[in-house]
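User: Let's play a game. I give you a shape written as tokens, and you guess the letters that built it. Ready? Here's round one.
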């Protein structure tokens, strides 16, 4: 059941697609305070209550005990003390005796104090009392989640090839670099479906351009890659280079499509290309114009994109640059003092402090509005521009799109990746935990930069990370330009990588089926154990195992030098290990705690009793997958069924009943396993 409350003059975010009437009385679940400080929602917290949700944030799955802030930020240090990352997912769930979901539909900065200031209080506050609050009740956390998801609309469904493995790196510049990657993978028989193109494919970092010196005939190059069954996926950045003669810049200026300053002039920002303008994605006409630009690349054969720097990330503005320079001049004019070092060091932060959000404006279809009021919608609206355009550009075939920044509602248009993580073991754990929270908020097509983006990865870390990435819909290895080469074939015994990634393809019939079904049923693909076993106290405390679809539990290894890990089984399950010989080891296990041994080149998983997985034979790309001849694997003590979703992988006609098949497995078929 949903109750909607409206305060002040809420800004229409488009997050909610259901038409709901507003309650006249006060919210039932917490106290509201509206005063000169803004809006505050306060609710006492029971000692045992766990708090879930908040999507892309640091720390564990249970969000209790910290102050999280939604203020989208280009944040490359995903440390425990960070309050905001790239996205604003203002949905939380409380595991009270009567479970509760709360969605704060507010597009500016909003804070979630989940028992940090006072252990027994949930305090949600924002500066302006203009928002909608949704209270959602239901029998279980999972049901509340489904209600919330139905209210916010069906999650984006990626083409099937985009569930294949992808290689990316900031630093591939020319055709040869891409060929080298593809050859490296194909020669070593490591599966590969996509290679991502970072900013260097463009001419001077200008969106919708190709550097012809590096790609003399891009269209031909795209088809050369297609022949090798490789999809090229270029990046698109939010900032448009200021340059005379650059058509996107000139058109934007002429049509008034850019954000403006106080006086109504195009607002100067800066990003990779140097000085830029930021398209006003909150304006429908701008979205239509920008969305259409993707056609330049789809016409050349491109069928996937990633949208970046759309928090928006602004390196500096003319004002902040001037202010910093002025402070430096003053600094230099004074006699050198040791303590002044701190003054100077702190200056770098002033280039792009959130203060700049007050300096520019949007034209929200006729209403002029300051950026700070709608800051968290920017990446969402950029990706909406793309998503809406793709429905026209490619009505019959899905196009891959995922974004760095997002807000709830964007999950209908695209996925997200989890930003600039580091090659740290702790970030592998963060990836596991964040993925569960993102699923609650509708972001099913998601994954982290496998191996880690910043800093140097290790062979062991990459293998362990890939063994978790095997299960995430977006499975992409991406790294920063100044780090160790992270392509799998650069490490010793590439066959280990071929095996681990190969398991992804073996599991793909199940993973794809569960992914699409979760989207179509407004359900979660990954769930914390607490959602499936709410009465099991032990299960509720588990932060490093996830349920995947109906039948599977994943238990990644995320510590260095470990030869395995402890797992908790909330019920009897079949332990399955994919070993490099291609064989599958299985063992029936009782409910309880067990230690499992897992080598670096093995992939572990658990299947619930009387559930089974359809497995394909290994393949080197999605196109080569044979899905007619499947092996069923499970521990069956009674006749069991599995509803398999299977389509061509690109249709947008998801609801056709033909896409479903019921697979059955009987005890005699397998003699138990
Ligand atoms: C940002 C992105 C990263 C990309 C880099 C260069 O840091 O998050 O993925 O590689 O920009 O485009």
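Assistant: Ready! My guess for every position:
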């Amino acid at each position: 059941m949903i109750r909607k409350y409206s305060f002040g003059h809420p800004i229409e975010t488009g997050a909610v697609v259901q038409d709901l009437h507003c309650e006249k009385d006060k919210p039932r679940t917490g106290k509201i305070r509206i005063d000169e400080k803004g809006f505050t929602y306060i609710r006492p917290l029971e000692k045992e209550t766990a708090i879930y949700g908040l999507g892309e944030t640091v720390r564990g799955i249970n969000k209790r005990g910290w102050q999280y802030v939604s203020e989208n930020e280009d944040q490359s240090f995903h440390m425990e003390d960070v309050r905001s990352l790239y996205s604003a997912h203002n949905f939380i769930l409380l595991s009270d005796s009567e479970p509760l979901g709360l969605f704060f539909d507010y597009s500016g900065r909003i804070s979630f104090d989940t028992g940090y200031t006072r252990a027994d209080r949930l305090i949600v506050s924002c500066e302006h009392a203009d928002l909608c609050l949704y209270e959602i009740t239901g029998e279980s956390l999972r049901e509340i989640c489904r209600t919330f998801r139905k209210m916010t609309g069906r999650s984006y469904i990626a083409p099937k090839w985009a569930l294949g493995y992808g290689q990316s790196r900031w630093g591939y510049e020319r055709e040869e670099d891409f060929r080298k990657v593809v050859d490296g993978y194909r020669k070593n028989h490591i599966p590969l479906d996509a290679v991502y193109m970072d900013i260097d494919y463009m001419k001077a970092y200008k969106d919708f351009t190709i550097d012809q010196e590096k790609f003399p005939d891009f269209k031909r190059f795209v088809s050369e890659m297609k022949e090798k069954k490789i999809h090229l996926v270029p990046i698109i950045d939010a900032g448009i280079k200021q340059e005379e003669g650059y058509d996107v810049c000139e058109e934007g200026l002429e049509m008034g499509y850019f954000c403006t300053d106080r006086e109504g002039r195009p607002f100067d920002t800066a990003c990779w290309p140097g000085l830029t303008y930021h398209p006003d994605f909150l304006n429908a006409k701008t979205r239509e114009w920008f969305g259409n630009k993707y056609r330049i690349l789809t016409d050349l054969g491109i069928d996937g994109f990633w949208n970046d720097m759309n928090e928006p990330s602004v390196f500096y503005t003319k004002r902040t640059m001037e202010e910093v320079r002025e402070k430096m001049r003053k600094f230099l004019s004074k006699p050198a003092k040791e303590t002044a070092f701190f003054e100077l060091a702190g200056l770098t932060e002033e280039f792009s402090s959130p203060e700049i959000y007050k300096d520019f404006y949007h034209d929200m279809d006729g209403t002029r509005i300051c950026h700070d009021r709608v800051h968290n919608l920017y990446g969402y609206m950029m990706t909406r521009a793309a998503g809406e355009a793709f429905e026209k550009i490619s009505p019959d075939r899905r196009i891959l799109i995922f974004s760095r920044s997002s807000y709830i509602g964007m999950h209908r248009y695209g996925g997200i990746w989890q930003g600039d993580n580091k090659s740290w073991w702790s970030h592998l754990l963060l990836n596991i935990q964040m993925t569960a929270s993102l699923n609650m908020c509708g972001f099913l097509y998601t994954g982290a930069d496998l191996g880690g983006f910043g800093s140097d990865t290790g062979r062991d870390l990459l293998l362990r990370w890939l063994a978790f990435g095997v299960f995430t819909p977006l499975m992409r290895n991406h790294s920063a330009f100044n780090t160790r080469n992270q392509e799998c074939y650069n490490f010793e015994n590439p066959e280990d990588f071929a095996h681990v990634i190969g398991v992804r393809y073996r599991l793909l019939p199940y993973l794809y089926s569960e992914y699409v079904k979760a989207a179509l049923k407004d359900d979660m693909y990954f769930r914390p154990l607490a959602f499936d076993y709410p009465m099991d106290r032990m299960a509720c405390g588990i932060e490093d195992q996830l349920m995947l679809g109906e039948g599977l539990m994943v238990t990644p290894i995320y510590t260095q030098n470990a030869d395995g890990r402890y797992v908790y089984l909330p019920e009897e399950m079949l332990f399955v290990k994919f070993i490099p010989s291609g064989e599958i080891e299985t063992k029936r296990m009782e409910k309880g705690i067990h230690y499992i041994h897992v080598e670096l080149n093995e992939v572990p998983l658990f299947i619930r009793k009387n559930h089974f997985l359809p497995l394909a034979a290994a393949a080197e790309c999605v196109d080569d997958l044979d899905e007619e001849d499947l092996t069923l694997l499970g521990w069956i003590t009674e006749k069991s069924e599995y509803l398999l979703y299977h389509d061509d992988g690109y249709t947008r006609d998801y609801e056709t009943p033909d896409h479903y098949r019921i697979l059955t497995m009987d005890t005699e078929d397998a003699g138990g396993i």
